[in-house]
Specification:
Oligomer: single chain
Radius of gyration: 21 Å
Shape: globular
Order of helices and strands: HEEEHEEEHHEEEEHHHHHEE
Strand content: 15-25%
Helix content: 25-40%
Largest sheet: 6 strands, antiparallel
Distance between the termini: 24 Å
Structural class: alpha+beta
Number of helices: 9
Length: about 290
């Protein structure tokens, strides 16, 4: 029996949401270019209080081909429950398999829990090339403002909406005259100047570190570095790539290359060991 066959009828009806995960978004241009969406699936699970205490100040992320070939699995604490899920762009038909693997990874800490809700919806991860025409402009998910690598979009949705509104107010002289496309072009130029680097860096990180288990192992190893943690925290806090120390940046580049080479050297005919936040042998998972 597949794990989702144990869902109550109301939750099983949410499987009807699955077709939307495969929907492609058409860009509003003559070439009708299509962009794939990230397909996430997650379950809200109410777990016992003693297990919920473990997640009071902690969120978990899992990486590996078993949970996703190009994204990550997660356990995020909510007010009185946890959200357990995963996502993928390249192999949407296996999303239930990846979700089961994520559940298996977190089984010890979530067993005894009750599924209270199942959610699935497409997430656009590619900023649209044409985001305004005439007196219409796109913001948030409609504009494709979800970041690669992390899948964050709430902040950028709110920020882009605010920027668009500010551009309209400025060019309309506080609502005393009609505005046209130039107002939205101003908003787009401002948004791109401020955040283009962030999107590009995260896109590169996903392509480099999410492509294989050895690359993910290198990523986990790099995340133990204090400088990486500081730069990551500051960049996440300010929602933009913060300038670093040139010397430390060069050292980080060398460490990145070394980690990638070392991780690839771990490949054997029997598989590789992938660690998740710990170097101890008991916390290592073999991926074949």
């Amino acid at each position: 029996m597949k794990y989702y066959e144990n869902w109550p009828p109301r939750l099983r009806s949410n499987l009807n949401l699955m077709p939307c995960l495969f929907r492609r978004i058409a860009a509003p241009d003559d070439k009708m270019k299509y962009y794939e969406n990230l397909a996430p699936l997650f379950e809200r699970i109410r777990i016992p209080d003693d297990k919920m205490k473990y997640y009071e100040n902690l969120a978990e992320m899992y990486v590996g081909d078993d949970v996703s070939p190009d994204f990550y699995g997660w356990v995020f604490p909510k007010y009185d429950h946890v959200a357990v899920g995963t996502g993928t762009v390249v192999n949407k038909t296996a999303i239930k398999q990846y979700q089961q693997a994520t559940r298996d990874r977190s089984k010890v800490k979530t067993e005894g829990g009750k599924i209270i809700r199942v959610e699935a919806h497409p997430i656009p991860e590619h900023p649209r090339p044409n985001r305004c025409k005439g007196r219409v402009a796109l913001v948030g998910d409609a504009a494709g403002y979800v970041t690669k690598c992390s899948g964050e979009g709430i902040y950028f949705a709110a920020k882009s909406g605010r920027m668009a509104a500010e551009a309209i107010v400025a060019q309309s002289a506080n609502g005393t005259k009609m505005v046209g496309e130039s107002a939205f072009r101003e908003y787009l130029d401002k948004f791109d100047r401020k955040y283009w680097t962030s999107y590009k860096v995260l896109d590169i990180l996903q392509k480099v570190f999410y492509r294989s288990n050895p690359a993910r192992e290198a990523f986990v190893e790099l995340c133990e570095d204090d400088y990486v943690q500081k730069m990551t925290f500051d960049s996440y806090l300010y929602k933009t790539v913060v300038p670093g120390n040139p010397i430390d940046d060069f050292k980080l580049l060398v460490k990145t290359v070394q980690s990638l080479v070392r991780a690839n050297a771990l490949r054997t005919g029997e598989g590789i060991n992938v660690s998740f936040g710990s170097k101890s042998e008991k916390d290592r998972v073999k991926v074949v």
